[in-house]
Design brief:
The complex is a heterodimer of chains A (362) and B (347). By secondary structure, chain A is mostly helical. Chain A is built from 14 helices and 2 strands. Helix content of chain B is 22%, strand content 32%. Classes of the chains: A mainly alpha (362), B alpha/beta (347).
């Protein structure tokens, strides 16, 4: 593994300015094409959803209906929901595209997501102990997390999280690890719990009661189709998201390292902590452009369709400053994630103390 | 109307809301036809351009209940961004089509866009009508209505509504225009019975009167009116008030075209809390916290949008993108936005 260079404060400042300039240029260029694009995606998603749900009531078309509904849920959560909730379309002034009010077709209440993801994860990306996306409070995803016998089940927990990903995400804001450690009680999280219950109940009623009942005698087909679509979306979202920060080569940071970070240092951490996925245009759309995880983490609130356009500039800047630009196809990246999940189930070899290197110049 | 019918029956509507959730019925129906929504929208059905004036007729998807003289906020999308401007309908109350006459303001984003792009089939957004520029009940017997430029539209709505109601009092309309061609309602006014109409041209000869507001003009239009209404630029409104202090007024200010380059100056109003403070050129978040407020906040560096708030009015400068927000009701990230001059923020 190559050693990541330490940048001087002056270099970091210049590095930050260069990245700021990319964002400024994109923001100045935003316009009708960006709005037309997201509305086209929304129209396609809603069309596929209606068609998929209608076809599911006609058993011979079960496979097609399930496929359409699966893709619809993937688009709803990723290219539409995730990105709109980041405020990527706030500049349009269109209430349908407002990140403040958007709600998505998954168990997690949008309000919780805006906090745990937009703020906690995107601000404290890959800081062990602050970024709760490192292992989601149940997995060991970094050497810097102290090993406990509980983690022997790492691969099993990871598999269960994949299958029931929407519920894992829904429970994220509950901070179960803090409840288990006795730091807070369940009663402290009453409001959060109520929010999760309200949203999850509606989602369950919709997919597993209302739509099956509407299908009359074909209820079991609709039930199975909806369950499959949710499962497909869960596995897909999990795979893409786990490839964002956990593949081989991504780095974690310590709280001490990142204290009083400058903007340049923040950018530096985002690049070192994220990894991209290579693929075609359709793959990028279905991944919600999270395949451009590096660009997304640098600029989480610019419309995601712009990431592909700025990626060469970001890559060039990384090259010039000698920073790694972690990128690879999904199967390869995901394989390294699976290896990491298995490896970290066991105690780290050698020193038990995390080897956090002081990389960011103070 | 379509979606309202759907939403009316009890159990059915709850089931519908459940299966259309979490987006809601409107977000599906509007994709079939933008008018099929419970949001107020309208389609442009007719357009007339004459000189500096553009008149559009709108077919709303729900009836618009406005009182003659009120204004209607109209939202248009220009290059992906929504802009809202208030226009007073010129049609009578209770008429199905809404008639808006919009003067072209050089540099005015919305008026120039509409003058260029308005055509039948175009969709616009509507909000609830508002405004106190309305006639009292009981109606006065002698009514003097004064308009400047496109300020004629609420006056048109009033006289048309009064004509429908068989009003038998006296009405005089005094319309100030630069030149007679700017008075696009001249023919309509001439057709209305029992109406004294005077045009005063400020830039050339042509109307019955010439020049700006004077005691002679007002007397020529109507001596000793029971009520005076004036709608137009500030200067006109002030001039009329000098003669008729009790006049009911509505004035429109031109859009500010000059934006100061230096932040600070003026005052920041936190309108939800009823607090205001001197604008010290720091971010809105810092200034709000100094004023004792505790707005919801997250990253404090412009990435998470937790602190995004509605800016009621004023100009703010986004430090991370360099963009400048001038429109009312824009969403702004207060942690990285610096107010320029007077700013009102919903905090």
């Amino acid at each position: 593994m190559t050693h990541t260079p330490t940048l001087t404060p002056a270099q970091l400042e210049e590095f930050g300015r260069e990245l700021d300039a990319i964002k400024e240029k994109v923001v100045a260029d935003l316009g009708q094409v960006d709005v037309d694009y997201i509305r086209r995606v929304i129209k396609a998603q809603r069309g596929m959803e209606v068609a998929g749900r209608a076809l599911l009531m006609f058993p011979p078309a079960w496979l097609v209906g399930t496929a359409l509904l699966s893709v619809s849920k993937i688009l709803d959560n990723m290219e539409i929901g995730h990105n709109i909730m980041h405020g990527q379309y706030e500049w349009t002034g269109d209430p349908a595209l407002s990140g403040q009010t958007f709600e998505w077709d998954t168990a997690c209440p949008a309000e919780h997501w805006r906090h745990s993801h937009n703020f906690t994860h995107h601000t404290f990306t890959n800081i062990v102990g602050m970024d709760r996306d490192i292992g989601y409070g149940i997995l060991r995803m970094s050497e810097d997390q102290r090993w406990r016998p509980y983690y022997l089940g790492n691969p099993v927990y990871a598999f269960l999280l994949m299958v029931g990903f929407q519920y894992g995400v829904a429970l994220h804001e509950l901070e179960t690890e803090r409840i288990r450690s006795g730091e807070i009680t369940l009663a402290d999280k009453r409001e959060v719990l109520e929010g999760i219950w309200r949203k999850t109940r509606r989602q369950v009623l919709k997919d597993y009661v209302a739509f099956p009942l509407l299908a009359g005698p074909f209820a079991p087909f609709v039930f199975a189709g909806n369950m499959t679509a949710n499962l497909v979306r869960n596995v897909w979202a999990y795979s893409i998201i786990f490839c964002g920060h956990f593949p081989e080569g991504t780095e974690e940071f310590s709280v001490e390292q990142t204290r009083n970070e400058t903007r340049g240092q923040w950018y530096y951490r985002q690049i070192l902590g994220s990894a991209n996925l290579t693929g075609g245009k359709l793959f990028h759309i279905l991944s919600g452009n999270l395949s451009h995880q590096i660009e997304h983490h640098l600029f989480p609130d610019i419309p995601a369709r712009r990431y592909a356009q700025i990626a060469p500039q970001v890559r060039e800047i990384c090259q010039r400053y000698g920073l790694p630009y972690n990128s690879g196809p999904l199967p390869k990246q995901f394989a390294t994630v699976v290896r990491k999940i298995a490896r970290l189930a066991l105690p780290s070899r050698g020193s038990t103390k995390p080897a956090v290197v002081e990389r960011v110049a103070a | 109307m379509f979606t309202e019918t759907l939403a009316q029956s009890g159990l059915g509507s709850r089931l519908l809301r459940l299966i259309a959730g979490p987006h809601g019925v409107d977000r599906y129906t509007e994709l079939v036809d933008p008018m099929w929504t419970s949001e107020d929208r309208a389609t442009v059905v007719r357009v007339r351009r004459s000189g500096r004036n553009l008149t559009v007729w709108l077919q709303p998807n729900h009836p618009v209940a406005f009182t003659a003289g009120q204004y209607l906020p109209v939202t248009v999308e220009i290059d992906g961004r929504r802009h809202t401007r208030c226009y007073s309908p010129a049609n009578a109350e209770g008429v199905g089509l809404i008639e808006l006459t919009i003067a072209r303001h050089p540099g005015g984003v919305v008026s120039e866009y509409l003058h260029r792009e308005a055509r039948p089939g175009m969709t616009v957004g509507l909000s609830a009508p508002a405004g106190d520029f309305v006639l009292p009940t009981p109606l006065p017997r002698r009514l003097l209505l004064i308009a400047g430029g496109s300020g004629i539209t609420p006056v048109m709505s009033m006289v048309r509504t009064l004509a429908q109601q068989w009003y038998d009092g006296e009405i005089a309309v005094l319309h100030y225009v630069r030149e007679l061609e700017d008075s696009c309602y001249r023919d309509h006014l001439a057709m209305l019975p029992e109406l004294r109409v005077l045009h005063a041209c400020t830039r050339e000869e042509g109307g019955e009167l010439h020049g700006h507001v004077s005691a002679e003009h007002l007397t020529a239009a109507m001596a000793d009116p029971d009520a005076v209404y004036v709608c137009g630029p500030h200067a006109l409104v002030d001039a009329v008030r000098a003669h008729h202090p009790a006049a009911v007024t509505e004035s429109f200010a031109p859009v500010p075209l000059v934006i100061p380059d230096t932040p600070g100056g003026g005052r920041v109003t936190f309108s939800d809390s009823g607090i205001d403070a001197e604008n010290d050129a720091r971010t809105l978040l810092d200034q709000a916290e100094s004023a004792g407020l505790t707005p919801k906040t997250g990253c404090r560096m412009g990435i998470c949008h937790t602190c995004t708030r509605r800016k009621v009015h004023g100009v703010v400068h986004n430090l991370t993108t360099g963009s400048i927000s001038t429109d009312d009701d824009d969403a702004v990230q207060i942690c990285v936005s610096v107010p320029v001059g007077d700013v009102d923020i919903a905090l």
